[in-house]
Design a protein that fits this description.
The protein is built from 3 helices and 6 strands; from the N terminus they run E-E-H-E-H-E-E-E-H. It is an alpha+beta fold.
Length: about 210
């Protein structure tokens, strides 16, 4: 199975709710980091489309001001400096800054994002939501799921997922690939934080979330 060809990118600051104002953050040059010999990158057997799962070095976890967008070395971001607030663990219909999403990943969350272009992909999004709704209860938190689903119009592939130091890239929503990724990497952040953070509109509006 062939690998996806990606370019690194991330999201800067809190965007307006209109996705047309959603701007990418500064990017690091070079391809997505897949390790020195590629041994930590793997395709998924049984997937219905191209799915690539990769492990990446830990980029650290300092808190930074919302006025200065972090730069990440992978697509999607897999670790690194992030904003002091994290999003609620839920589905969003607008983009959420990666500075906030990475903080949720530090707490053990899995982030699922998609970019289906102007035509959208409501059927695939519905399948992704059904996948999330069908997940088993969180054994660390007692109920619910530390999972975030959101659009990302800067994503260079159709679907992606991220957990702390791991990424998935895919050209469709494939239940087999996402199930494997979730089973292997959910709840493996630096911390266990079960509360769902701040509402979207308040992610950087003076709230103390750390």
């Amino acid at each position: 199975m062939s690998s996806l060809v990606l370019a690194a990118g991330c999201v800067d600051g809190l965007p307006a709710r209109d996705a047309s104002n959603y701007e990418p953050a500064p990017q690091e040059a070079g391809p997505v980091d897949a390790g020195t010999d590629g041994s930590d990158a793997m395709s998924v057997d049984g997937a219905q489309c191209t799915v690539l799962i990769e492990q990446h070095p830990d980029e650290g976890a300092y808190h930074v001001a919302c006025t200065s967008g972090p730069t990440y070395g992978t697509v999607p971001p897999s670790s690194g400096n992030h904003f002091g607030c994290w999003p609620e663990y839920r589905t969003f219909d607008v983009p959420v800054p990666w500075g906030n999403l990475v903080h949720a990943m530090e707490h053990g969350a899995v982030v699922i994002v998609y970019n289906c272009g102007s035509a959208g992909c409501p059927d695939e999004v519905a399948r992704a939501q059904a996948f999330i709704d069908g997940l088993p209860p969180d054994t660390d938190c007692g109920s619910g799921h530390r999972v975030i689903l959101a659009p990302d119009p800067t994503l260079p592939v159709r679907w992606a997922a991220a957990a702390w130091t791991w990424t998935l890239q895919a050209d469709c929503f494939d239940e087999t690939g996402f199930t494997q990724f979730y089973a292997d990497h959910y709840g493996h952040g630096r911390e266990i934080v079960c509360s769902g953070g701040a509402p979207y509109a308040n992610l950087c509006d003076g709230m103390v979330c750390q």
